[in-house]
Structure formats: C-alpha cells, structure tokens
Amino acid sequence: MSFNEKNETQVSTRKPSFEGRDSFIEQHSSRRTSTDNLNAKLANPLAGLSHERLLADAEEFAKTHELAEYAETIQKGALIAQDPTAFEKLPMLNEADRFILRRELTHKWDQPKTLYYLVVMCSIAAAVQGMDESVINGANLFFPSQFGIQPAPGASASREQWLVGLVNSAPYLGCSVLGCWLTDPLNRWLGRRGAIFFTATFSFLTCIWQGVTNSWPHLFIARFFLGLGIGPKSATVPVYSAECAPPLIRGALVMMWQTWTAFGIMLGYVMDIAFQNVPDSSGIRGLNWRLMLGSAGVPALIVAVQVYGCPESPRWYMMKGRYPKAFESLRRLRHTDLQAARDLYYIHVLLEAEKEVNKKTRNKFFELFTVPRNRRAAQASSLLMFMQQFCGVNAIAYYSSNIFVEGGFSQTSAILASFGFGAVNFVFAGPAIWTIDTFGRRNLLLVSFPLMAAMLLMTGFAFWIPESSPARIGVIALGIYLFTAAYSPGEGPVPFTYSAEAYPLYVRDIGMSLATATLWFFNFVVALTVPALLGAWTPQGTFGWFAAWNVFGFVMSLLFVPETKALSLEELDQVFSVPTRTHAAYQLKNAGRNFRRVVLRQKVPKMPPLYEHEGAIGEKTYAPGGVGAA
C-alpha cells in the first residue's frame, strides 16, 4: 500500500444522516495511519522509552557531541523532557532542581535579560514590517502629482489609478514571487540572526532608495526590492522567536508579532503626520513624502545593529552540528544549566525524528493536496489568508488618506484620521493574545466577519451624505474605526495562528510557506486594484465590494473552517479527517437550529457532537455559543 493510500480518511469520524438525532452519528471503524505515526513521532520522540534507556542515550549524546562535562545534567534534562509534569517523582533530581522547575511553572515570565533583549529586537522587527506597509499611505497624497500619475478627479479606472496601485503594491509582488522563497536559503546559509541582519539591512537601504527616486518606474523598482526584505523577515522573525522562547510562553511571544506589526502601522502614520508639512529644500522636490518613505528604514537599521547582541537559535546550531554552541546559546536564554540541558536534548531528539520522517516523505508539497487530512487543512488556512486581504483592511491601511480626502477631509485631517485607524488597530490587537485562546479561532471569525461587513457598508453609505453636512466625515471615520476594532482581535491574528497549528507536523513548514505566499499574493492584488476600484465604483461601490467578501468569509468559515483551539495532534487529525461535505452539512444544520433557539426562542434539541473527542468529554457540544459555534 502506498503512503498516500494509507492516508485516506482512516481516523474515527462521525457521519451525519440528518434523519433525526438518534441516527445523526454513525461511527466508522478506525485504524492507525501513517500520518498518525509520523505525528506521534514528532509530538514526543521520547515517549515509551524506559528511564534506563533514556539515561544511556543521554550519556552517549553528551560524549559524542563534545558535552561530556555536562553528562549528568543532560541526563536529568532528558528525564524531564520525556514528561515535564513528572519532575516531582524523578529520584535523580534533588530539591534544588525541583525548586527551579516549580518556579518555572509559577513564574513563567521570570526569564533572563537576554531573552527579553531578543523579544525587544523581534518586536522592533515587527514594527519595521508595519511601517513598511503604512508610510506609503501619506505619501500617496504627494508623489503621484510629482511623477505625473495623479488621477484626474472623477476619473473611472484610469491609467494613472492603475499606476498608483502598481507602485503601492510593488513590495507585495516582490514578496510573493521571490521574497518568500528566499527564506529557506537565507536561513540555511546565514542562520536566523544572519537572515534577520540581511533583511533588515536590505530594508534600510531600500527605504532610503525609495526616498531618492525620480520617476514612478524608479519608485516601483525600489519598492519591489523592498519586498525582498519584507518576505524573508516576516517568516524568519517569528520562527527565531519560537525557537528561542521557553515552551510556557512561546505562544504569547510569537503572537506579539501581530501586536507589534500593528504598532508599526500606527508609527508609520505618525511619520506621515510628522513630515507632511516639511517644505522642499534646495534642489529637493517632494521632501515630505521622501522623508515618509525613508523613515521606515530607521527601525530597520536598529534591528540590524541589535540582532548580533542576541544569541543564535540553538536549533539552527544543532542543525549544523554545532552542539556546544547550541548549549551555550541556551544557557544565555535560560536561568539554569538544567533547563538548558532539558531543552537541548529535546531539540536534539526532535531533529533526529524529523530526519527519519523526511526519509519517508519525499514530496511534502504534493502531499498537501493528495492526503485528504492535509488538503482540508490547506483549504482552511489558505481561505483565511485570502480573507485577511479581501476583508478590506489593507485597502484602508494603504489608501485611507486618499479615502478620507475624497470624503471631504483636508490633507492634514486625512493623515490624522489615518493615524486614528492605526491607533485603533494597535489597541485592539493587544487583547487578541487573550481572546484567541478564550473564545476560539472559529468563533472570533464568525463574530468579526458580519461586524466588518456592516461597518464597511456604513462607511460606504456615508459617502452619500451631502458634503455640506458635518456628519459625513464623522460617519466615515467612525465606520472605519469600528471596522478596525472588529478586525484586530478576529481576522487579524487568527489566520497566522490557525495556519501554524492546522497542518500535521511533518508538512507544517511547507504548509506555512503556502499560506504566507497566498497572503502576500492577494495583498499585492488588493494594493494594485483599490485605486481603480475607487475610480470605477466610487467609495460606495468599493466598500460594498469588500463588505460582500466579508459575507463570503462568514459563510466559508461557517462551512469549511473547523475549530483548532486547545486540541492535541491526535484530535486535530480527527477534526481534519471529517469529510468536507460532512462538516459543511453539520454546520449548516446546526446554524439553523441555533437561529431557531437564539432568535426565535424555540426549544430545540442539541446537536450531537461531530467529533469523537467531543463526545468523550461530554461537554463540548455545538448548541451553546451562537451560530455555528464550534
């Protein structure tokens, strides 16, 4: 039997018949699949080993990797790594060791200064990302007229509008066609720190390059090359943070990428405000927009200077066979040698397991689509990445100043209003760290999509208010701000988080590459087309267009996006092994029942659970929690 044949839907599922509650679930027989075996191996390579075998393996590891002087500490670390919750019962540990491990659980944010220095560097790198995206917003008010591509008032999808869109979208074209695919070779050759240094330096130089351009083709080329810095940096920094962070706070630190990207977007608008009234200097025309675009290079330069003060990723050192360097790095990132030894040994056995898995899966990209479980994960994550762009947020992020001017704002007021958009985005991105694990990914989507659609319609309709009425600009700004407040804790953080956990471990890297390439390609499409849409359809039609996509996103999330919050690898395999039609039919029927129960106040029986683990728990049923709750 081939590997792909083994991976057909073998995990236990429940099949709906819709003939009544008692006949809703039909239990299929189940058997262990190759995917299950691969995931189990990657989930905990130490599971099932006796303590005697584990101690012998750890001692051999220390001797053969130039760490013999730490052999006893590594043996202790191996025992803890096998089951981190069982340290109280390990006879090899003394009371001082147990105190360290207890304190790690009760004071999870008590970490070495080196780790927090690394966190600050990663946060500034995220802010660079946000500034690269937003500084163009204010510059859009100035450079088109200087380069002869200013759209005429009332023009409908003119050549100039397409050219403005092309210049704006250039970095995301660079990301999708080249930048994202440079991530692996840069990391392989230069390491995590080297890749961050290269991309930050490249971003700095291209930001300065943007500021000295003398035509729109020249500006397009400079911005295209900016994408070669944005793409690998956006993929490398979260990975570097995850590889260096302790497990207990890893998720929160990785989530901070989204929060500080939102901060960078806000900071980009601050730069637009700061430089908008800068007069031209002798021989320099358009100094204001040049300073706007160049300002994003300053934090990039800070990252380039700062990064080599951080330790290299221990995992990267170990991939290169430099185990003493990896242990030295971990000792800087952990309080004690015991914690460093535990993480060192676990990374080692995980890397060995990955090598074994790679021998069995030669074409991982192909298996994203041929294995049904993987295909459903790719379908859901790609849908969310697509919707993050077509929900309309970046139409506002890149063109809000133009939109506000068309709504009757002055240029100064438009840039200030754009700063308000950035501030709301940043403020509401913070709570996402809590809400995403409290309410769940799916529920956040099902709430945020309808709210975003309603706020976009409100904004678009506001353009029909007479220009003489002061309510016009107030309603436009309010609609955009409320849209942003709905986006930031929902469709903002969910796509990256969802994509990172939906795929099986053995194809997770290639799955994330597919997800990020999807994101940047459709980012390019949105940035390219919005000026022409505003000209052809007016703001009313453009906001209505994106509102319709949010309705589409709600329906697709309801039918095709399962919940992944707090599920084990085995449970995720079960969730994504439910046939797409079965899941969609169940959720559609459940939405109807919830409408009758919540809106019509009728008494309707609860839906039986769709997944085996929910039935076992006996509490996670679908009736509570709103339409299509999961």
Automatic annotation (TrEMBL):
It is a multi-pass membrane protein. It comes from the Eukaryota. Residues 118-565 form the Major facilitator superfamily (MFS) profile domain. Keywords: Membrane, Transmembrane, Transmembrane helix, Transport. GO terms for cellular component: membrane. Pfam families: Sugar_tr. Residues 1-22 are annotated as: Disordered. It is found in: Membrane. One of its GO terms (biological process) is myo-inositol transport. The chain crosses the membrane at residues 194-212, 218-240, 252-271, 291-310, 383-401, 413-436, 443-465, 471-489, 510-537, 543-561. This is Major facilitator superfamily (MFS) profile domain-containing protein. It comes from Lentinus tigrinus ALCF2SS1-6.
